[in-house]
Every structure is written in C-alpha cells, then in structure tokens.
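Minutes, project check-in
Item: structure for the 278-residue chain
Input as provided by the requester:
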Amino acid sequence: MPELPEVEVTRRGLMDHLPGRTVVAITVSGHRLRTPMPSRSLHEHILARRILTLDRRAKYLLVRMDSGAVLVIHLGMTGKLGLLDGGEPRHRHDHLILTLDNGHQVRLNDSRRFGAVMVWPAATAENAESAFSAGEGIEPLGSEFTAAHLHRLADRKTAPVKSLLMNGRLIAGIGNIYANEILFASRIHPATPAGRLTMADWRRVVAESQRILQLAIATGGSTIADFLGATGHPGYFQLHFQAYGRRHLPCPRCGQPIVKTSLTGRATYFCPACQPPP
C-alpha cells in the first residue's frame, strides 16, 4: 500500500503540471472502488473547474479547485495517479480520467480497486475537511510530531510500539514498511509496549522517522510491487532498506541475521541483537 512518502511523491510530481489547468472532460470506468465513484459530483463540481493546488493529508491527496470544491483521492493498495498524454490508449484498470485543457490526462489506475474518490462541494468543503482531518493522526513531518507528544499518546498503552506508529488515528501515514525501518534505526524492538518507551526513546523515533521519510520522498518512494510516481517512474527507497524484506540477511550494523515474524498480522522485521526484545 502506498504510504506517506509515496503519496507525497505523487503530489509533488503532479504539482509541476496541474495547477492552473482546467478539467475539460471526466471519464469513469463504471466500476466501484472501495466506495462508489461519485460520478454526478465529479461532473457537477470538478468538470470545467480550474485546479488551484494539491495538498496531502495522511495518505490522501486533496485537489483544490478554483470554485472551492475539493477532489479527494486515496490510492488504496495498488492505486497509481499518473499524468499521461491524451493519446495514450486507455488501460484496463483506469477508473478515473481527468482530461485537462492542454490535452494531458490525470488517470487513477487501481487494479485491486481498494482506492477511493470523494468530492467535497464548495458549500460544505470546509466543514467536510475539518471533520475528515480530525479523524486522522498527527503528521510525522509536521510540528506536532514531537517526543513529548508521542510520549503522551503512548502513556500507559500496552500495545506494541509498531502498532502505535501504524495507527492512523494517532499518527498519519506511517505504514508497515516505514514502521519497520524506523524502529530498526531507533534500536527498538517492534513488540515493545508503547507505554514503556522513555522520552529518549521517543526522541530517537522522531528523529529517525523524519530522516527516513524525507529520504524516502527524495528517492521517489518504495516500489515493492507496482508503485509508480506521477511521471511513471518507480521509487528507489527499497535500495536503502535496512530491515524490511531482509529476512536471514545480515544486519547492516552487527551482522546478525534479520528475523521475520508476524505482529498483529503484519510482517515484522528486526535484528535480535540491535533490537533486544522487551
């Protein structure tokens, strides 16, 4: 599933091309995604409107129109949002196509159809965004992501720290890949109860989270299966993995084999020497 870095890479790629462009045609596949495609709202509030800018909140892209309406897109597990020439043949899993006034098209391609498309009309967009944002956690690259804040969130919690990092209602956008990498870099065992972490532990988590996420964005995200950025290029952060996907390979720090286990149903990688169990 695209995580925060992949969504941010997509946003930045589209920011070079979309602002100032007008949507002149909209095509939908007729297939349901995670939620029904809002075809009527797309034609009523997005068609013939000019794109002002693109923002990201958690793993969602927010395309802001000159009318005040907002097009909200979640990539799901296999979604890709790409910019293509209008003459490019339509692909099998292109479920939303926005044709722009310069002939280019923005296409949402999603083979497993776990993505989502929503439209917030101008009249209700502010309230809708406020309610939506309140349900998402703090941004790891934002000013609220501090050791003190995380220490408060984790107070008396017995759930594993890895689960807390991946809880989107508490922290936005950190999925399985980056939780593994962050905890390896922080030398914290993934199963450590979150409430046991000290302020010093959380300071390491904050520093490593921001370092790793920024590096992932700079390298185009992680392409494990089929993620492509908006320009159609894969990411390369997987070349920097220290723990994720490295079962039986030597730890980059100490040489001990990386261990793979399952924690709350998710593949979990760690070094038993550098990340001693709680």
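Outcome recorded: The chain is about 25% helix and 20% strand.
No further action items on this chain.
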